[in-house]
Amino acid sequence: MLLNAGLPTILVADDSESVLTLFVQLLAGDGYTVLTASNGAQALALAQTHLPDVCLLDVRMPEIDGLEVCRALKSSPETRLTPVILITGLADANDRLVGIEAGADDFLTKPVNAHELRARVRALSRMKLLIDELDSAEAAFMTLARTIEARDPTTNGHCERLAHYAVALGKEIGLQGEDLGALHRGGYLHDVGKVGVPDAVLLKPGPLTPAELELMRRHTLIGDSLCAPLKSLRRVRPIIKHHHEKLDGSGYPSGLHGDDIPLLARIVAIVDVYDALTTDRPYRAALAHEDALRELRDGVKARHYDPRFVDAFLDITTRPLAFDRTEKVIA
User: Fold this and answer.
1) Mean pLDDT score, 210-232
2) Domain boundary among 96, 131, 166
3) What does each C-alpha distance from 206 to 151, 212, 281 come to in angstroms?
4) Which of 131, 240, 261, 263 is most buried, judged by most C-beta within 10 A?
């Protein structure tokens, strides 16, 4: 194992000592930090501990083969975006098909050409750097959302509760995978545009003037614009922009009707209203749980909220120990 602080980390896994030695010489010579493993189990443990930037895995290894290691890495949230290069023999063409299904990003064939190895590692390490930068940018938005929430002591915990409520409701109606991830992030980021709303308006204890109301409503457009450069937030942006739309078209910012409102935004709209109603605000005291549910039912009658999703949310709240408004929805 050769460690060079601050440089990309490459994990090389092969049961051949001569191959490991060759790869270390080539990659360390290019300035990479190099981790080595002689079997699949060791490779998986090193990857989970050190989170390398690129993994080179021989397909044929003892204990756990490279294909299984690849599947494990691609199924873990911590390593699913880590590029994996599978190394196969000339006679193992079928390994490429299985490798693609396992999530491999690239392939090298033994005997490995040194120039090809270095070029592919260089390209994938650059790609991983860009992915990490996007993750850092998204993390910065999450921090910004929490900072905005901290401006108003009465909304403490609002974003976290919305993330939990939205995911629970999404699961209840059968959503999976990326939709649940977007609901979780959307719960945190739905009001990120309030960074552009002055405290005098955001924290005003009385009714807003028409001009102040218009300024407050612009937070949906500001938030959408802030998140636009990040492709990783493309599924979250409809939540940020449209969670104040209503089925009858009386919402904002676009006055969308019915199913024209993005599905995830309709979900967040319901849990956002519920949490707002059950939280003390500068302009009114919190409602009791049952009173808040009654308001949601009235909203369905007024064609503000999707009745299917309100019914599903009400079902969640009736289950023993399934709903804790002060903390989170318990799966």
Assistant:
1) 89
2) 131
3) 17, 11, 10
4) 240
> Are residue 166 and residue 118 in the same domain, yes or no?
no
One-letter amino acid of 219: H
Question: If DSSP states are collapsed to H, E and C, what string results for 95-122?
Answer: HHHHHHHHCCCEEEECCCCHHHHHHHHH
Contact 174, 312 (CB under 8 A): no
Q: In this model, does residue 327 exceed pLDDT 70?
A: no
Indicate the pLDDT class of residue 326, thresholds 50, 70 and 90. Answer: very low
Q: Do residues 89 and 175 share a domain?
A: no
Residues 6+ apart with CB under 8 A from 330: 321, 322, 323, 324
26 token code pair: 């080539």
Residue 146 lies in a domain: no
Cα 52 to Cα 46: distance, rounded to the nearest angstrom: 8
Question: Mind listing the pLDDT tens digit for each residue in 59-93?
Answer: 988 889 999 999 999 998 788 889 999 998 765 66
CATH code, domain with 226: 1.10.3210.10
DSSP for 284-324 reads BPPPPHHHHHHHHHHHHHTT-S-HHHHHHHHHHHTSTTTB-
The answer on 170 and 88 residing in a single domain is: no
Q: Structural domain tally of the chain?
A: 2
Strand partners, 84: 55
Q: If you search the block for the tokens 């808040």, which residue do you land on?
A: 292
The 10 Å CB-count burial string (b at 16+, else e) for 24-34 is bebbbeeebbb
Domain with 76, as residue range(s), is 9-131
- Kindly report the average pLDDT of the chain as a whole number: 86
Burial 255-264 (b: 16+ CB within 10 A, else e): ebeeeebbeb
Both 121 and 206 in a single domain?
no
- pLDDT more than 70, % of the chain: 88
